[in-house]
Amino acid sequence: MPEAPLPQDGLDARGPAATRRGWVLAACLLATFISAVESTIVATAVPTIVASLEGFELFGWVFAIYFLTQAVGIPVYGRLADHYGRRPVFVAGTGLFLAGSLGCGFAGSMVALILCRGLQGLGAGAVQPIAATILGDLYAPEERAKVQGLVAAVYGIAALAGPSLGAFLIDLFDWQSVFWINVPIGLAAIALIAVSLKEHAVSPAHPVDWIGSVLLLLCGGALMVVCVQDALLTPLELGAVLMLGLATLAVLIWHERGVPEPMLAFELWRQRVIAVGSLGSGFCGALLMGVAAFLPTYVQGVMGRGPVASGAVLGAMSVGWSAASFATAPLMRTRSFRGIAVFGGLCMLVGAGLLVAMSPTARLWWPGLASLVMGVGMGLCTTIFIVAVQGSVAWNQRGAATSTLMCLRVVGQSLGVVLCAGALNASIAATDPGAADSALDRLLDRTGRASLAPEELADLTDVVARGLHDTHLLATAFAAASLVAALILPRGLRATPKPARTRV
User: Fold this and answer.
1) Residue 88: phi, psi to the nearest 5?
2) Could you read off the pLDDT of 3-24 as tens digits, one per residue?
3) Helix (H, G, I), strand (E, B) or coil at 11
4) Residues 20-54: pLDDT tens digits?
5) Which residues is 199 bridged to in the sheet?
6) Closest listed residue to residue 213, CA positions, set 80, 336, 25
């Protein structure tokens, strides 16, 4: 596997102001933690949020807008980091993420919450991608495999803490606290990076592609409206929004081919490892959010369990993720990247199949087992994909390459949410067009659920169960696509032999 110049290129390793790797690693792990917690803790809290603010028809947008703005921000931050350095971009993006988190906690309606989630996602585009890029700079290939395994493990541990922490905060305080928990952790990460990471100044060769960013936002937003709200739009409205999205997509592609440094780094896609690794990460992201965003609704709305139970089910995924992430680094010493990723893809497919076969009367261990097996697969695949991609480029492209992978992962998460939300809404509209949003909102709240008549409760439970079964079928398709991506990885691709260690 081709490798970049020494990993400390662009960093200041001279004298007392040299980069302190231990503190920087701690900051990156904190950033990874809040990024991971944001997905699982909000997924656990969304049923309670919907019951409080109402607006079941906007359910999918709580996730979709976050991932849309995050996807737009990731390539922009990647280019900025390659031009101006990692530290200022990380600090600015994380600060924006924390501002959005504060706003989400103060939101008084679903619309306000969705807008603040958009701001939060815009900042999130810099949190985990730039943290991963910094670690790719600081550590040599053999070390990088271990560190990325540690990062993936922290991601899994954070995901494990998220559901339980979310349930605890909701029971003890209120749903607003699930957003505010990010603030002290994010501030600590900013302080550590600001003090400990030293870089050489890098002059940009070309301006950032802001026009491409706006076009991507418009294109993605229009296509998301088509996917999520198709059951609520007239054919004329649906056609108009779809045409807007496709026209903007065409303009985006034309524009990106004519700028010196496009936001979408097409030149990197000529490398097989980057293309396959990024696509594989995208499918893993789609599976993650296709399950994490809707499985708690199944556990609470269909099975009639509480937030703690749904948190435990998602926590099983995080246990599998953590265990597999810890195991990936030693596996890479003796196994090819492709073999490890293929096994991970098979695990994800088996776990998704268990969800498809699940019935509303199933015991709680059934979705828990499915989550556990899928978590093992995700821990293996996500670690392999990012290590392979980072090892295939030089320092001055590592930010763009890492951001490309992260962008595809977030695009996958966004598509996973919007496609599953669209399938859920379409199924409910087809099965019971008269189902009231207020009744569906009450189904997700224990007090409201108790107020429903037995016949109405049974009907609504059946309607939601059928819709969520469709989301499980989509999750199976995402898992199968991840497996295909793993199979396309080059044979024999391995971590490079351990080089002489250079302290930074």
Assistant:
1) -65, -35
2) 333 344 455 443 333 457 888 8
3) strand
4) 788 888 888 888 888 777 766 777 677 777 777 76
5) 11
6) 80
How far is the C-alpha of 492 from the C-alpha of 339, rounded, in Å? 9
Give phi and psi for 448, each to the nearest 5: -65, -35
Q: Give the span between the Cα atoms of 292 and 168, in whole angstroms.
A: 18
Cα 116 to Cα 108, 120, 190, 234, 337: the distances in Å are 11, 6, 21, 28, 39
With beta carbons less than 8 A apart as the criterion, state whether 368 and 311 touch.
Answer: no
Q: How far apart are CA 34 and CA 42, in angstroms?
A: 12
> Which run of H or E residues covers position 478?
helix 454-488
Nearest CA to 259 out of 216, 323, 220 is that of 216
> Quick check: 355 and 468 in contact, CB under 8 A?
no
How big is the CA angle at 422 (ends 123 and 446), to the nearest 5 degrees? 85
* Helix 395-431 × helix 365-390 angle, to 10°: 150
Residue type, 249: L
What span, in angstroms and rounded, lies between the C-alpha atoms of 163 and 142? 33
Give residue-wise pLDDT tens across range 317-366. 878 887 887 787 788 777 888 889 999 999 999 999 999 999 888 888 99
Contact 77, 89 (CB under 8 A): yes
What does DSSP assign to residue 65?
Answer: H
Q: Alpha-carbon distance 356 to 354, whole Å?
A: 5
Residue 246's CB is within 10 A of a number of other CB atoms, namely 14
**Six-digit token string for 12:** 């200041």
The reply to whether CATH 1.20.1250.20 applies to domain 18-198+263-488 is yes
Tokens of 482: 């991840």
User: 172 is written with which tokens?
Assistant: 């003890």
Those residues with Cβ within 8 angstroms of residue 438's Cβ, 6 or more apart along the chain or in another chain: 54
Q: Where are the domains of the chain?
A: 18-198+263-488, 209-262
Decide if 417 contacts 104 (C-beta within 8 A): no
Burial class (CB in 10 A: 0-12, 13-18, 19+), 360: middle
Instruction: Provide the angle, in degrees to the nearest 10, between the axes of the packed helices 395-431 and 210-229.
Output: 20
| Farthest-apart Cα atoms in the chain, separation | 74
Phi/psi of residue 176, nearest 5 degrees: -60, -30
The residue length of the chain stands at 504
Chain centre to alpha carbon of residue 200: 31
CA angle 108, 109, 114 (to 5 degrees): 115
Residue 497 reports pLDDT greater than 70: no
> Which DSSP letter does residue 304 get?
-
11, β-bridge pairs: 199
DSSP 76-138: HHHHHHHHH-HHHHHHHHHHHHHHHHHHHHH--SHHHHHHHHHHHHHHHHHHHHHHHHHHHHH
